[in-house]
Amino acid sequence: MPDTVFTDVRRFASIDSTNRYLLDEARAGAPAGVVAVADHQTAGRGRLGRTWEAPAGANLLLSVLLRPGLAPDQRHLATSAVALAAVDAVDALCAPAGPGAGVGVKWPNDLVARDGRKVAGILAEADLASTAPGSPDPVVVGIGLNVNWPASDDDLPPELRGVAGSLRQMVGAEVDREALLAALLAALGPRVGALATGAGRARLAADLRARCVTLGAPVRVDLADGSFTGTATDVTDEGHLVVDAGGVTRTVVAGDVIHVRPAG
Ligand code: BTN
User: Fold this and answer.
1) Taking the alpha carbons of 71, 76, 79, 83 in that order, is the dihedral positive or negative?
2) Ligand 1 atom closest to Cα of 46?
3) Which residue's CA is minimally distant from atom 7 of ligand 1?
4) Does any ligand 1 atom lie closer than 6 A to the CB of residue 17?
5) How far is ligand 1, taken at its centre, from the CA of residue 145, in Å?
6) Which pLDDT score, from 0 to 100, does residue 262 have?
7) What homologous superfamily is domain 9-211 in, according to CATH?
8) pLDDT tens track, the chain, 264 positions
9) DSSP output for 117-152
C-alpha cells in the first residue's frame, strides 16, 4: 500500500477547531491525508474536555485525517505516528541549536522539552459511527505545537509557568513556523505509512521507546476507576505503557488513562 500523502493542506486564518473541521469532513467522506492548519482557533480542543489556546500566528495548530484501519488495541499508534513526525520535524529544525534542543514524548500524548516543559499536546478523536462502507474508520489527530509562544514565562498564567514552554524558549531564538510545518508534513508520510505493516508498527514502537521520557520514571497512573503508582518500564508494540507496580506488571492503554504524572 503506498504511503498516504499529506498534500491537501487547508489553511484557515481563524477557525473554531481544526479537529472539529476534519471530523465533519470525515463524516462527509473525505479521504485520509487531508490536513487542516489554523493561525488561530476560537475553540481549540484539548484532552479531558479542556480548551487549547494560543495567540494568533505564533504556534502550529494542525490536524490530520487518518484512516489507518488499525485494530482497536492498536489505535494509539496512530497518535504516536503523528507525535513521532513532530519529533522528526523538531529534530530537523532545532538540532542545529544544540543537543539540548530535542523533544521527548511523554506518554501518552505530550511532547516535552529536556527540562520537562510541555511544548506540544496531541488530541486524537475518532468518529466510529461515521465510517463509510469500504473506508476504514476515520481518526483525526490534532497537534498544538508551541513554536514561538510563550516567548518567556511572563506570557503564561501563573499555573503554567515552568510547566509549559515553547521551541523558541528551548533554542533561544524564533523558529520558522512554515519550515517546521513543511518538515512535519514530510515526516507524516513515512510515519503514518508505517502503520500499515507489522514491521512498520514495530519500528514506530521502537522509535517511541527511544524518545519516551516516561520510561524509567516513577509514575502515578490515574484511571477512571482508581490510581496506582510504579515505574514505567516499557512501551509495547501496540503503544501501551508497561508499569511495574511493586512487582506486579500492569499494562496501561492510552484511552483508559486520565493522567500519568511523576510519582512522589
Ligand atoms: C492536549 O490537551 O494536550 C491536546 C491539545 C491538542 C490541541 C490541538 S491544536 C490543533 C487541534 N485542534 C484542536 O481543536 N485541538 C488540537
Assistant:
1) negative
2) 2
3) 144
4) yes
5) 9
6) 87
7) Bira Bifunctional Protein; Domain 2 (3.30.930.10)
8) 556 789 999 999 999 999 999 999 999 999 999 999 999 999 999 998 999 999 999 999 999 999 999 988 899 999 999 999 999 999 999 876 665 668 999 999 999 999 999 999 999 999 766 556 667 789 999 999 999 999 999 999 999 999 999 999 999 999 999 999 999 999 999 999 999 999 999 999 999 999 999 999 999 999 999 999 999 999 999 999 999 999 999 999 988 888 898 887
9) -EEEEEEEEE-GGGPPTTSPPPEEEEEEE-SS--SS
| C-alpha distances in Å from residue 145, one per residue of 140, 184, 257 | 16, 11, 22
Residue ranges of domains in the chain: 9-211, 218-262
Grid cell listed for 47: 484532552
Peptide bond into 108 cis (omega under 30): yes
Q: Report the alpha-carbon distance of residue 39 to residue 22 in Å, rounded.
A: 16
Return the axis-axis angle of helices 76-94 and 198-211, rounded to nearest 10°.
Answer: 60
Domain 218-262 in CATH 2.30.30.100? The answer is yes
Atom of ligand 1 nearest to the CA of 54: 9
Nearest protein Cα to ligand 1, atom 16: 142
Give residue 164's pLDDT: 97
- Is the separation of the CB atoms in 177 and 113 below 8 Å? no
Query: Which atom of ligand 1 is nearest to 110's Cα?
Result: 3
Cβ-based neighbours of 241, under 8 Å, separated by 6 or more: 107, 108, 214, 221, 232, 234, 235, 251, 252, 254, 260
**Contact of 50 with 140, CB cutoff 8 Å:** no
